[in-house]
Amino acid sequence: MADPLRDRLLFGTGHPLEDAVHDVLVEAGATVTRLDAVYGTDSADLMAEYSGRRVLVEVKSANNRLPQSLPGKLLKHLNTWPALPGTEPVDGGILVVNCQTKLPPAQRDTEVCTDRAFADALSLPVISSARLFDWWRREDWDAMRHAVFGDTGSAQPPETAMPDAEPKASGRPGLLSRLRR
């Protein structure tokens, strides 16, 4: 029997995907606030807090590869955030994307952003919901917190698309068998 959280992270869109991202961040020890109920579409989907750091989390899905317009949505939210009533400053933001949703997870690109020039131009982190699933499944809370908050003191997980990030080697043996659990 498949785990509902697995299904929402690997195949979800909209609110089910947002709920799954919320749930894994909470399991990683973060305090997570759902922002849509308060600010509607004027803000990101979630605000996550951990160890004194506060970030906006925008959650999106795409049938194909990462659309180049999606990081702009997070930037817009970061720019308008200070003008919203009752907000406190944030330390940044992160875009979580479920890409290539029509493909089985083992057939999806291993990197969230396959266009190196585009990835190098990103000013904010972008991670896949599949990567969150992998960290959740392995209970690798440090890697998850580092990707979202940048506070663990260890090396940046290579699966996070960031400016100047080195390309990640493609594919990992046994990924399909781990995803089917």
Q: What would you note in describing this structure?
A:
This protein has 181 residues and is α/β, with parallel strands linked by helices. It has one domain (4-179): Restriction Endonuclease (3-Layer(aba) Sandwich). It has helices at 4-11, 14-27, 36-39, 70-80, 116-121, 129-138, 141-149, 175-179, and strands at 31-34, 46-50, 53-61, 92-98, 126-128. It has a five-stranded mixed sheet, with helices on both faces. A hairpin with a 2-residue loop joins strand 2 and strand 3.
Summarize the structure.
This protein has 181 residues and is α/β, with parallel strands linked by helices.
Question: Which keywords apply here?
Answer:
Restriction Endonuclease; single chain; alpha/beta; 181 residues; 37% helix; 5-stranded mixed sheet; 15% strand; 8 helices
The residue ranges in which pLDDT falls below 50 over 5 or more consecutive positions are 152-181
Give the overall average pLDDT: 79
Query: How many β-strand runs?
Result: 5
The CATH architecture can be named as 3-Layer(aba) Sandwich
Sheet/helix structural class: alpha/beta
Q: Identify the strand order in the major beta sheet.
A: 1-2-3-4-5
Structurally, the number of domains stands at: 1
Number of helices: 8
